[in-house]
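Help!! Second protein's tokens look totally different from the first
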Amino acid sequence: MNHGKFDFHIHTDIIGCANKTMSIENILATCAAAGCTAIAITDHLNQPDQLPQHRIIRDRLLNLRSPIDVYFGAELNYSARNVDFFYDENIRDEYGFQFALGGIHETFTDTYDLKTIIDIQHRHHLMTCRNPLVDVLVHPYWFSKSQFVKKGFPPFQTMKDVPASYARELGQVAMDTGTAIEINSHSMLDPAYINADFVKEYIDYLAVIAETGATFALGSDAHDIGQLNGIQDAWAVAETLHLSAHRIYKPKCKPLLTAPPS
């Protein structure tokens, strides 16, 4: 591997979206054992009442010694169609966030029309990249299966309906804005969660983006301790795409926690 072994998308049990196995102590030990050289804690930040939990996360990190470098970030989600994230410079600075992931987690339509759904996703991907406070676009074209079932939509199970022109445009906008595109191991590459044909098509989609020269971020998106080892799938895709070290995202600041000298 010609680049760092990073995992810059990890959730904890503190916010509540990850289960009880995802204590910060368990995360640090598991990631170190998996060979990670740097990680980030990036719980969801969708609304004001989640800010106190983020302060708890940061305080706990500062009271620990870590075997690997650790950054402190947040994952931002759109709360409504064409509405910006709940996040600004004041929140970033007051709570000490070192970087932000962002992306769309909803279809934002109650009527099934695949082209409309894809167009909404693509428009929000571009919005995310153009937001100067967002460093990484998370898991493009991830959809909650339960959301589709609840709305009575057929499952989204192929990338063939996403135009290659959308991938090229996203790659170019990401290049222009300096935003990294995430290679997400659990949500987009996990064979226990997604069928093998989709995974292959998704890697082909990422390859089109890679042709533009865009940079990529590596993340497990783990919500359970058993999902952290899946980051190796993201590392493998980075190798498949022949991404050099300078095209793999890493926060430009000093880690919140630094590994002891070897």
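Here's the second one for comparison:
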Amino acid sequence: MTNNLNWQGASDAINNAGTILLVTHIDPDGDAIGSLLGLANALRARGKTVDAVVDGGVPASLQFLPGAETVLSSLTQGEWDVMVSLDSSDEPRTGEAGVYGRAHSRLVINVDHHPTNTGFGDLHLVMPEAVSTTEIVLAWLRHMGQEITPDIARPLLTGLVTDTRGFRTSNVRASTLGEAQRLMEAGASLTEVTQRVLDSHPYELIELWKYALPSVTLQGAVISGVITQEDLRRAGADEKTNGDMVSLLNSVTQAMIAVVFREKANGDIEISLRSKPGYDVSQVAFSLGGGGHRQAAGATIPGPLEAARERVMPLLQAAAREGSLVIS
């Protein structure tokens, strides 16, 4: 999807709204929660009545962000003038909260940076060239003349850091660093955010990796690993334990594409994909019903594990053959 930016229409809808619902995607990462809380804190500062929700609530690793305690974990009642969907490439990604919110909101604004965005909603702020949804939220707040306070800056910087893996992805521009500088000047600590979202893991994660790493194999330029329900049980970990094992695999010199197959309790297989610059995993994810970016994407498909591997690995091998390492 190309840029679809209705700044004025979206701003007018917010300014005219009395009640606003903010929703982000299931299994939220730093960009999802960062954009949710950055916008929620800003709109509350503007005097708006705001409900923010994500299925299951805010992950423990992101509860340091201001306003995290106000985020609902489910929706069972309410009516809103405007619903804002954040960092979600399609409607199913917004989970049960999105289903309820769309049915009880007069208008939906779609704010996202995924190239695979399906264009749902009534008004759009979709910018695939943005490194994170928080970057779009920051531009939107600037358009509305909103002062960026520390409570707004900290979540927005968290999204920038998370989705660029510490400003290391190939879509980082000079302007990205400029935005980070402005958020730091507004009161966000880059040291704090980086430490909390990139360099902080529970011990259960190390136990999980201990059981999962023996499954790792390198086939040509594609490296893969598996996390089973038995691995989670032995490690004392739960479904929400997520240490980005796929990024660890992607750091292997010989690998251009990395994948981790994670067995869910219901038997589905969650697929996490990463790639080196020049290799595109987003189209593989999209073909499987998922989405994401060229270097980071994912999908969930039916199990069992071996069937999922047999379905996905040939697609990744083809993507590896079509790619070419780019270092700039």
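Reply: Different proteins will give different token patterns, so don't panic. The chain is about 40% helix and 20% strand.
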